Each structure stands twice: as C-alpha cells, then as structure tokens.
Amino acid sequence: METDPTTDPDAESPEVRLRERLEEIRARSVKSTSWRETTQYLSRLVNRAGYVPVHTRLSREDLAFLGGARDEVAALADLGLRLLDLHRPQESGGLSSDPAHRIRRCRTCMGRWPCPTLRVISETLTR
User: Residue 74: which residues within 8 A CB-CB, separation 6 or more?
Assistant: First the structure.
C-alpha cells in the first residue's frame, strides 16, 4: 500500500529531494576534471573551417562552453542551494480548521507552500 507523501511524516519532502539533487550535481562537477587547460591547447588546433580535428567536431563555441562548463555547473548548483535556503516553509500562524495540517507559507516570498520558486526549481530539475 502506497502512502500519501503529504500526510506521511516519514516521506521525503520535495525540498529534501531537491537539495540532494543539487548537492549531487555540485559534488560531481567538483570531482570532474576541468577542461580549461585542455581547451587552451585544443583551441590552437582549430582549422580553417573552425573545427578541431578530433573524432568529433568541436566548434569554438563548443570549446568555450567546455572550458567553463565545470565552473558554471558548480555555480548554478550553488545558486539553487542558496534559493532553497531562502525559500523554506514556515507555519503561517493564525487559526486553522485542521490543526494537524496547518497552512504553511514560504518564509521569503510568503506564498503558500510550496512557493512558486520551489515549484520552478523542482520542475526544472525533474525534467
């Protein structure tokens, strides 16, 4: 029998899943080898047609992307984690007709939880 994640206190929250996913992305990017030095060498091999003669065609734009991809992915993961730290749920206070399921709001934007920011991050990472 499946449990409803909205009522199961042991179920992993969307926030926890997103945080784990972003930390995983950041950890993988930090462990990867930087292409920065390699792309400096490969960019000297660009031929007249604008490609490096390897088994695959890499344009200058490809090399520029590969050169900064590791750092950019780490920065984007950091951004996502910082957004998750800002957009966290809090009890909204006030009276509720169902004290066991109080209304929660985002502590930053005060939207109903999960707030639009968390939903956008979730939709983007779960594609």
Answer: 26, 29, 30
Tokens of 89: 């749920």
What six digits make up the tokens of 26?
A: 């950041």
The sign of the CA dihedral 57, 63, 64, 70 is positive
CA angle (68, 126, 107) in 5-degree steps: 90
Question: What's the pTM value of the predicted model, to 2 decimals?
Answer: 0.59
**Spatial distance between the Cα atoms of 90 and 13, rounded to a whole number of angstroms:** 14
What is the rounded distance in angstroms from the CA atom of residue 127 to the CA atom of residue 114?
18
pLDDT digits (tens, 9 = 90+) for 64-113: 888 888 888 898 899 999 999 999 998 766 666 666 777 888 999 988 88
Strand partners of residue 22: none
Give backbone dihedrals phi and psi of 14, rounded to 5 degrees, phi first: -60, -35
Nearest-5° Cα angle at 75, 127 to 44 = 100
Non-local (6+) Cβ contacts of 94 within 8 A are: 103
Phi, psi of 106 (to 5 degrees): -70, 135
